[in-house]
Amino acid sequence: MPQSKTLRSFAFKTIRILAGVTLLVFSLWGVSWGQLAESVGSISLSWFLLALGSVVVGLCLKAIRWWLFLTNYGLEVPWRRIFEAYFAGQSANIVLPTRGGELVRLGLLSARKPSSAPQIAATIALEKFLDLVTLSFTAVGVAAYLPPEKALWVREWLLPFSGLASIMLLVVILWGPLLWGAIQPKISSYSHSWVRKAAQLMDRFIESSLWLRDARRLIPALLLTVLIWVVMWGTNVLLFQSLKMELPLVAGGLVLVFIYLGLLPALMPGNIGPFYFFA
Asked: What is the pTM of this model?
């Protein structure tokens, strides 16, 4: 049985990588390499450096947002460790065929204090949730420019999924402590030490999550998320300018949505094939 599971896992990963390679081939099929070299050779260095700087600013803003979440969960972590863990996670996402960077972040930051793992995992989940909601709003904004099948996917899958995630988060914020208060005494009656330890971790997690009810602490996180997406949108616009591509501002958001939708399956290391195909 373990051997069959290993074979299935290997086959599944192989199929995903092959799918990614196929998308890479399709994206490069028929490319005029001479014209590509000419375009790269005529790139505007000043606009390109601005686009590169925008990428760095976006990554730093994401790391700052993570620091804000960690602080709100009562975790005092030095700036250096936060940036090291965040950028190590980004690097892992490039190397690994799955989105393993989040696990790398979690492992690096909780290594010295394993009891903080639930709070750290919650910060990463909250980060992904806010990005999902922002992606949904951005997709709706550019839906008129999407191909019919992608616009349909946004309406039938992305919006309902982000709506369900929002409802679940609202339930956790409003009724999480009440529900846990009813469950906790029953769990604590177990004599197993690991059960009691898990209950203590959940106690700490529920207590530290109460900051989500405070609008004064939640609004900065929301505004920071919007700023991150504006910067990512702007990065595409600056890149268009560096390549002398006369495109409307909405094109930056369109590319951003396509890339996010294309990278969701995590088909291959670095998502190189899907990235080029959807971009």
From this structure: 0.73
